[in-house]
């Protein structure tokens, strides 16, 4: 079995009403020390409900996050804590 691929960045994106959820997720990751903000981009995209329909502009956000230097350490501590919780149950 090959080792898992490791990535140092992730891009979160959302349209319309889902934007607030993506922003919340990004803030949680940043506040807990897992990620740093690399780039935020806002734009408007044209969406169609069905083929041939008039395009409807929708707000879109793209947030690029990078791993912090403490990411692996934090993940290890979290996994250890979760293991302790499972043993108690």
UniProtKB/TrEMBL annotation:
State the superkingdom: Eukaryota
Q: What span is annotated as the signal peptide, if there is one? A: none
The coiled-coil regions, if any, are none
InterPro entries hit by this protein: Alba-like_dom_sf, DNA/RNA-bd_Alba-like, UCP030333_Alba
Where do the DNA/RNA-binding protein Alba-like domain residues begin and end?
A: 7-43
Query: Pfam families of this UniProt entry?
Result: Alba
Q: What is this protein called?
A: DNA/RNA-binding protein Alba-like domain-containing protein
> What's the source species' lineage?
Eukaryota, Viridiplantae, Streptophyta, Embryophyta, Tracheophyta
């Amino acid at each position: 079995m090959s080792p898992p691929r490791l990535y140092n960045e992730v891009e979160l994106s959302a349209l319309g009403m889902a934007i607030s959820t993506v922003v919340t997720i990004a803030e949680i990751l940043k506040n807990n020390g897992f990620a740093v903000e690399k780039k935020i981009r806002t734009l408007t995209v044209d969406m169609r409900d069905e083929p041939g329909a008039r395009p409807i502009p929708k707000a879109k956000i793209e947030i690029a996050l990078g791993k912090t230097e403490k990411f692996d350490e934090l993940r290890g501590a979290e996994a250890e804590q979760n293991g302790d919780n499972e043993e108690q149950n």
